[in-house]
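Inputs:
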Amino acid sequence: MDIKKIQFSYGDKPLIHELSTTIEKGKITTIIGPNGSGKSTLLNLIIKQLKPKEGQIAVDGKSITACSYKDIAKMMAIVHQHNTAPEDLTVERLIAYGRTPYQSFWSSKDEEEEKVVAWALKVTKLEGLAGKPISQLSGGERQRAWIAMALAQKTDILLLDEPTTYLDIFYQLEVLNLVRELNKTYGMTIVMVLHDINQAIQFSHNVIIMKHGKIVYTGNAIEGVTTERLQEVYGIQATIRWCDKNCCPYMVPIAI
Amino acid sequence: MKRRGSAFLIISTLLVIMIVVAISVGSVSVPLDQVIDSIFSGTGGSGGIVRDIRIPRVIMGVLVGANLAVAGVLLQGVMGNPLADPGITGISSGASVVVMLVMLYFPGASASIPFYGFIGSMVACMLIYLLAWKNGISAIRIILAGVAVNAMLGGVTSMISILNSENLTGVLSWLNGNLGKKGWSEVRMLVIYTVIGLVLTIPLSKSCNLLALGDKNAKSLGYSPNVLRILISIVAVFLAGISTAYVGVIGFIGLVVPHIARMIMGTDHKVLIPFSALLGSTMLLLADTLGRTITAPYEIPVGIVMTIIGGPFFLYLLRKDQRRYGH
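Outputs:
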């Protein structure tokens, strides 16, 4: 995915300045950065929830500016940060909404539906909860259900906007393990926004570090997070340690 | 699924019973066997009453009840707001101002009154949407904008009434919501409009369901939420505006019915819409029959009966959902 010189502003307030980057196919890329750095905005621009003032975003050489919402929904799916659903909506029916891009305006069935919904339930380990209303699920289960809906879109690219926020550490790891599995087993390209820097290092191939609507670093996750960069981007003092268990560095914040 | 099936069966049965009761009850009560007789043969006597007065009135009630209830479901879906209904969104008052003007100043144009009603409701509804719009429509803003615009239109209605106090009798009984005094030609036209409007809701039920997942999800599943909103609103305004043009302002049915229907059927619009239509017909017939009989020989217009029943219900909803919709 190629992003070329995109600009975006809310009213007069510019949020993204001449941003260019490339997101590698088949890899997990995580966008990190302080609050208001434009992480979620970038994610929403990639999937055309927001339209850039200038610049181009292309997937496999095809510009998304010219694509309809429906075409985009077949290319990439997103799990939004805040989701609401009617109280009585069951997991199964929620997942079936993921098939919408493949259905006509008036019908809500397609040939693949049953097969794909069953697959999405299995991948997210929700088979036992298929008939349960969303409102009765735990936070972690609910997040998995929304991921399952996105999976039912059968796209090569999956975007996630802060998928672990509001979850306790167990469910955070569960969601991130699921994301990793989707990448490994099904070769999905993952782009997500995370707040936790250590999780970003641990679970991503690449990171995009943002500040004030600009990219400070893009590339290998392990190499990207350094004490100097944490000082520059977040304004914190931190040290980087190495964890033997998962062969991965982690940062320990010390002071501001 | 089974529960929903039996709910449909029960409401259909209730509607049939209500239709029969509404035909036989009134200032002249007609026994059941004569009701059936007169449909197929009789003219004059009680047969004439049934054929020329009661049956058109009952059909009007069935159609208008269904239309207003379905319009309510659609508007609540569009705004993600359970307090929206044809009254609050200005559809009724917009239609009534325009229809009143046409009735009083262009009596020759009475054949195209439904069209003018539709235009009037469209304009008022758009005005309230625009006033209430700010990064989406919030429950409170729509009610405030609705109160303001409805008060203004109500003022216009009163002003026109005062200026035309000599020839107001016909207009007044229409304004309060009245199913009576409708001929077969009007009934036939409303049947056509109703069929068109209700058939259009079939493909829209999916759009309503998509909007319930939030704008962001509707968009990332391939549809522009605002385009869906406009399509759904046009059908809702059509159903309610046309009905208001024929029978006047009948409030609250579009509010009360969808809520009861949702409690019974859940939130899936594929079943919610048809069920609301049946429930709306039944409830409006009940209200009209009560209005005709309770204070006989005086007749209370059905619009007034619905206001008396619906007002407290509205307050109940406001209290019950305060935590969810207060902001």
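Remarks. Residues 45-79 of chain B form the longest helix (35 residues). Chain B touches chain A through 21 residues (CB under 8 Å).
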